[in-house]
Write a structure and sequence with these properties.
alpha+beta, 5-stranded mixed beta sheet, 45 helices, disordered N terminus, membrane
Length: about 1300
């Protein structure tokens, strides 16, 4: 046990762990802050050399050109009490940096010197946190040596300045502070000079409390009263040591659900702590965040944080008159950064930020903005820079928040938070009840009116909830003045929306009976905080009310589960998303992939019983249970109806009760056992405290007498999310940490010992983390795509949803951007990947024009992609540059980030991503020029492994480019392959073709005679489905036997084969002049048609019987009745499955109807079974039989021999369809007509009626043998039952299938 008194048992119950003093060490003198200065000097020299600066506020070279009063000097921890405590080891470097993030500040009597308060957080590498609260004030420098040193620095600076700036006075001010008239010399004299004989020199000093919990208001009050004691003319009632001793050793943490009063130097201080069933402790003013940013920006920032984008909060020290809230010190900006960061993370309840979290980034840690991981950091600049001058290492996935200027820059493709408009309205009503405008305190009226117009238009267009008013203000006023509000409440109670709280919001301090023991402003802050937080918490409670149903509990024991954590899926995402309303999906599909959601579910899996449960989870689960009881709805039935928060009053009342009746009062400060002469007091100076009395606490007091282990247990159950978990089981803690660290091996920059070796080590961790993340992402995407996970979860159909696929590909693009941003020498453009590609393109073109470079490998790759061996379609060349040009030619993509993502999508669809990136990185000179030595892309082994992981994507088919860029123009290449054996060369007619896809179809394209290969351009057709091919029957030899047609998308390289194998010509085959062919996608390396494929095709394609090149369709192999029944069952089953998928994820229905395993083919086999052999030299087709049946029924009707009404209707329908198909102007032939009839029958749910009709028809007896399937009543009834299952589906046919028919 070290000198931290109080004993181990009392550790967690103490209000504060340390009292710290930081400032100028007069013994070591003025030391430049080397790391900070070096960072600034490098950036300044970069700027001078013409390179882009890293952070432009430093381009003036703060330590080398600025006046000595503005330079960065090292601050030190001068004293801390106690020396150390076991449960929270003192981190001297981190505390020193964060108490004074920009080092020591010097001022003269002419400068403003108000004390400034700011809070900070020390986040350890394991994610646990300690809170710091610092008050910085100015003391007169009494050391003659320091004053002389400052005077000397001024003489040197002025001499250097005159030499550098004497010739043409450019009028620039290098102080980084003032802009005005006059020469630089006079300005220096007026604003930034120091004369030892005339001026008084002041230096900053800081007093700080380090605490286990974030009682910000109480700590601020303690520090301000201590400072007041040393600046007031009268000495305090007791020596300062008494008050500091009291707060360190005698003031306990208030127990959960209780309030505590203790004494400051001049007055009582009150703090209160939420109970275990309330939202966790949060003590920062939410009001300030909404005033600074406005509701709209807060919601955008909140969404970015939930989706784990990189977030940079930016504030600058400036004296611009245009800024609404005047700033006098950077420390006020530090408090702003802290308030915004803490508020956003607190509003995430029950989720917790899992990545790098540094709300105040010290000047010496600017290199951490290079971190290729999600982060939330706060950056303070003391220049006058605007956003346009601020260059950051990576911006593709960055959310940039300029706190002072009410401005937020968002990443591309940010999805909208579910029910955002109603959510914004609910929050706005609360803000307005407290007199805060929802737009925030904008200093630009134009922006305010623009924001109002935007919101108004959004509300008008929003159709999801009919009772949204035109603006929050109107709805609030309306409800406030409405006398029938009681009736309204009763009416809407059943919907789960409560209007009661509006009455309370009218006067936030309406609870007149309670006399609270804090001032009214403080109470209003408490009330607003809890109301806003309850509304945010309610959103997640509503959205995830049924989450437990979808948690996948591990089948094995916990230890095995931890060991294999990376391989395990902990949440059934597909089923959860399928239950959600459509508008929620873009946001939710991405949110379910985040580390914070994975950690939340891991916690759920690990904590079965309530005693074991994480405190945050316990609160959330209890709220979910309440909602279930209130709503009493089916667990899986989701609704997008907005349900307002109903817990506000209860939460507010709990706080008011705690503040009205103080539960505990701590021991009062008292005289300590100090030697005579100790505790002397000198006004204006914080005294040197007596370490002997402050280094140890009392041997015992009423707080430490409690049973320590029981106290620990209680504490464990009452963890707030602002505390770090102290778990009993070290092993479990290790596993939790490993589970959390799945995506990144580094959670926090270490704020100490920043030697080059430590920076190198950190970057190595980043490299390892990126590789691990790449491995996990590729694995996850492949498992989803190949459906193994879905099968293991018990879903029969293996298919990834389009929303989820898009989410996974977007997150892969984000990862690639982070990899390409790591270790960049110079930032160019927002996308590091696209910038590298442009450099590569430029290099290649330069080499090409200079003639020093062979074209092989750039434009025409030596390893050509094979096309179908029996075709003569020239292979599509593989070229990275060509793929870039395709993207550059797409006018719809405006930004570099968009171009990089499109290029990644195209490369994935072509199965060339790994190969292209390997080629890009093979230019070693370029990589060396663009990247620092430690960059991921210069670590050869890791780079190889990374490319190997990406290679695994070639195992699956993606359509991530085709399905996203639906409106672009695409060139298509067509090749028609006629039979060489049967006179294709003599063909005299004029052929035409029409191509259809999932996104549209072409016009009829005339093919020049004797031309079998052509290219045309049209809007993206999507995946191709059918080709209609025909001719005009002109000339002497108008007969054409087409084997197949190939169509290739010239951008993605996808080639579709449309088998035909039939004649087109009068008097040939079935007399058809046009045919509808159904296509299949060829795999990348198809084998010759006749040889069996060595590997199975990657996409399901027709597999039962290939249509052979035959003169008679009756040459097909005959199937027995069992096989026919099976094929019809499979065809119908395929259609049923198709309709059970989400609408956006369905494939081609045409393939299921008319493909080679489709319904048409299966029914064709059924009708051909037992069909009597045709007469010699004449084919009889199924259509001939159907026409005879039609004639029979029409005759019956004329003779009025109709058995019953239903039968009569069916017969009439059947005849109507046959007549309509025969009367069509299209020359589709008899088999084409049969196909059309089956498709129309399926569409109108008539097939089973027609089968019953034909089975009873006397014509069947003449044309079929006795063994025929259609004569067997049992088989026919079975067939009818199967076809009846299609009745519940709304089948929509592709235009190409029913063109020319109007039924």
């Amino acid at each position: 046990m070290s000198s931290g008194g109080g004993g181990g048992g009392s550790a967690p119950s103490r209000f504060a762990d340390y009292f710290v003093i930081c400032g100028l060490d007069t013994e070591t003198g003025l030391e430049p802050d080397e790391l900070s200065a070096l960072c600034q000097y490098i950036q300044a020299s970069k700027a001078r050399d013409g390179a882009s600066p890293f952070i432009s506020s430093t381009t003036e070279g703060e330590n080398f050109e600025q006046t000595p009063l503005r330079r960065t000097f090292k601050s030190k921890v001068l004293a801390r009490y106690p020396e150390n405590v076991d449960w929270n080891p003192f981190d001297q470097d981190a505390v020193g940096m964060l108490c004074m993030p920009k080092g020591l500040a010097f001022k003269t009597q002419a400068d403003p010197r108000e004390p400034q308060f700011h809070a900070f957080i020390i986040t350890r590498e394991d994610g646990s946190r300690t809170f710091g609260f610092a008050l910085t004030f100015y003391e007169e420098v009494t050391s003659k040596q320091i004053c002389s040193a400052m005077q000397t620095l001024y003489h040197m600076h002025n001499a250097e300045y005159d030499v550098l700036h004497a010739p043409p006075a450019d009028g620039r001010d290098h102080s980084g502070m003032e802009v005005g008239e006059g020469t630089p010399g006079t300005k220096l004299q007026r604003f930034n000079s120091y004369d030892i004989s005339r001026d008084t020199l002041y230096v900053s000093k800081c007093i700080c409390l380090i605490t286990p919990m974030s009682f910000m208001k109480a700590c601020r009050s303690v520090l301000e009263q201590l400072h007041q004691a040393v600046t007031s003319p009268q000495p305090p009632p007791l020596p300062l040591e008494s008050y500091i001793y009291n707060v360190l050793y005698e003031v306990p943490l208030p127990p959960p659900g209780r309030s505590l009063k203790f004494s400051g130097v001049y007055g009582p201080i009150i703090c209160q702590r939420p109970s275990t069933n309330e939202l966790p402790l949060f003590d920062f003013p939410v009001k300030e965040v909404f005033e600074l940013l406005g509701v709209e920006n807060v919601f955008q920032l909140f969404t970015c944080a939930l989706l784990e984008f990189q977030i940079l909060l930016y504030s600058q020290w400036t004296n611009h008159k245009s800024v609404l809230i005047p700033l006098s010190s950077p420390l006020r900006d530090y408090q702003r950064l802290m308030t915004v960061a803490e508020t956003i993370t607190a509003l995430m309840f029950p989720f917790q930020w899992q990545h790098v979290y540094v709300p105040i980034l010290p000047a010496s840690l600017l290199h951490f903005l290079d971190a290729p991981v999600p982060y939330l950091m706060g950056l303070h600049s003391n220049g006058l820079d605007d956003r346009s001058k601020l260059e950051l290492p990576q911006e593709a996935n960055l959310c940039f928040v300029d706190i002072d200027n009410h401005f937020i820059e968002l990443p591309e493709d940010l999805p909208q938070f579910p029910n955002k408009l109603e959510f914004v309205q609910e929050v706005s009503e609360i803000l307005m009840a407290f007199g805060i405008p929802p737009e925030g305190n904008l200093h630009c009226s134009e922006s305010a009116s623009k924001l109002k117009r935007l919101r108004a238009s959004e509300l008008v267009s929003d159709k999801r909830n009919g009772n949204i008013a035109g603006s929050p203000l109107h709805s609030y006023e309306l409800l406030k003045e409405n006398e029938t509000i009681a009736r309204l409440q009763a009416l809407v109670k059943r919907t789960g929306v409560s209007l009661e709280k509006l009455e309370v919001r009218d006067d936030p301090s309406s609870n007149k009976d309670l006399k609270v023991q804090c001032d009214e402003e403080e109470l209003r802050i408490y009330q607003l905080n809890i109301q806003i937080r309850e509304v945010f918490a309610n959103r997640f409670t509503q959205m995830f009310a049924d989450y437990e149903v979808f948690v996948i509990q591990p089948s094995q024991d916990k230890e095995s589960w931890f060991t294999n954590r990376e391989q395990m899926q902990n949440f059934d995402k597909a089923s959860f998303l399928s239950d959600q309303p459509e508008p929620y999906l873009p946001f939710l599909s991405r949110f379910l992939e985040t580390q914070m959601f994975a950690s939340f579910i891991d916690n759920k899996i690990m904590c079965h019983d309530d005693d074991d449960k994480d405190p945050v989870l316990r609160v959330f689960d209890s709220r979910v249970d309440k909602i279930r009881l209130l709503n009493v709805r089916t667990p899986t039935l989701r609704t997008s109806m907005y349900q307002k928060c109903t817990t506000v009053d209860e939460a507010k009342k709990a706080i008011e009760l705690r503040l009205a009746k103080i539960d505990h009062t701590a021991v009062h400060p008292h005289l300590l056992d100090m030697k005579i002469g100790q505790g002397k007091y000198e006004p204006g100076f914080f005294p040197k405290l007596q370490s002997d009395v402050l280094s140890t606490g009392p041997a015992s007091n009423k707080w430490t007498k409690r049973n320590a282990p029981a106290q620990w247990r209680r504490k464990d159950r009452q963890k707030q999310h602002t505390e770090h978990l102290r778990l009993d089981n070290d092993q479990r803690e290790k596993y939790i940490q490993e589970a959390r660290n799945m995506g990144s091996t580094i959670r926090q920059p270490k704020l100490s010992n920043l030697s080059p070796s430590v920076i190198a080590q950190t970057n190595w961790k980043f490299v390892e983390g990126l590789l691990k993340e790449c491995r996990n992402k590729t694995k996850r995407m492949l498992v989803e795509k190949m459906g193994r996970e879905a099968v293991e979860l018990g879903h029969g159909e293996v298919n990834i949803t389009g929303v989820e696929e898009n989410t996974l590909i977007a997150s892969l693009c984000d990862l690639l951007e982070r990899i390409w941003s790591h270790g960049l020498q110079v930032k160019q453009g927002k996308s590091a990947l696209w910038s590298h590609l442009l450099h590569y393109q430029e290099n290649r073109q330069r080499k090409l024009t200079s003639g020093s470079f062979s074209t092989s490998g750039i434009f025409l790759d030596s390893e050509r992609r094979k096309s179908d061996a029996s075709s003569v379609m020239s292979p599509l060349r593989i070229s990275l540059i060509q793929d870039m040009r395709h993207i550059q030619n797409i006018g719809e993509i405006k930004t570099d980030v968009g171009k990089a993502r499109a290029w990644v999508r195209l490369s994935m669809e072509k199965k060339l991503l790994s190969r292209h990136l390997k080629q890009l990185l093979s230019e070693h000179e370029l990589t060396k020029k663009l990247y620092k030595r430690y960059a991921f892309l210069r670590c050869d082994d890791e780079k190889e492994q990374f490319l190997y992981h990406l290679l695994s994507f070639n195992a699956v088919d993606y359509f991530c480019f085709t399905n996203v860029f639906t409106t672009i123009l695409i060139p298509y290449h067509i090749l028609i392959v006629p039979s060489k054996k049967l006179g294709g060369s003599m063909f005299t007619a004029n052929p035409w073709i029409c191509i259809s896809g999932e996104l549209g179809e072409t016009q009829i394209l005339q093919i020049p005679r004797n031309v079998l290969e052509m290219t045309f351009e049209c809007q993206n057709l999507g995946k191709l489905t059918t080709v209609q091919i025909g001719h005009d029957n002109s000339g002497l030899y108008a007969k054409w036997l087409v084997e197949y047609v190939l169509v290739r998308n010239e951008i993605t390289g996808h080639t579709y084969k449309f088998p035909c194998g039939r004649w087109l010509g009068k008097g040939m085959d079935d007399g058809s002049l046009e045919r509808v062919l159904v296509g299949e996608l060829l795999t990348s390396q198809p084998e010759v048609d006749e040889r069996p494929c060595r590997t199975p095709p990657l996409q399901q394609s027709p597999s039962v019987i290939r249509r052979l090149v035959t003169i008679s369709p009756n040459n097909k192999p005959k199937l027995n009745t069992g096989q026919i029944q099976e094929s019809i069952g499979e065809a119908v089953n395929g259609i049923v499955k198709h309709f059970h998928k989400p609408e956006k994820e369905r494939g081609s229905l045409t393939l299921l109807l008319c493909g080679e395993c489709g319904l048409v083919s299966a029914l064709e086999q059924a009708f051909q079974h037992g069909f009597k052999s045709p007469r010699l030299f004449k084919n009889v087709f199924i259509w001939d039989f159907l026409e005879k049946a039609q004639t029979y029924y029409e005759t019956l009707e004329q003779n009025e021999l109709v058995p019953e009404e239903n039968w009569h209707m069916r017969a009439r329908n059947f005849c109507r369809f046959i007549t309509a198909i025969n009367n069509t102007s299209r020359n589709i032939g008899k088999d084409g007509k049969f196909q059309m009839l089956v498709c129309l029958g399926a569409r109108d749910h008539l097939l089973h009626h027609w089968i019953a009709l034909l089975a009873d028809c006397p014509i069947t007896a003449h044309m079929y043998e006795d063994v025929a399937l259609i004569k067997d009543h049992t088989l026919v009834n079975s067939l009818i039952r199967v076809l009846q299952t299609l009745q519940e589906f709304n089948i929509t046919l592709e235009t190409s299938l029913v063109k020319g028919i109007d039924i």
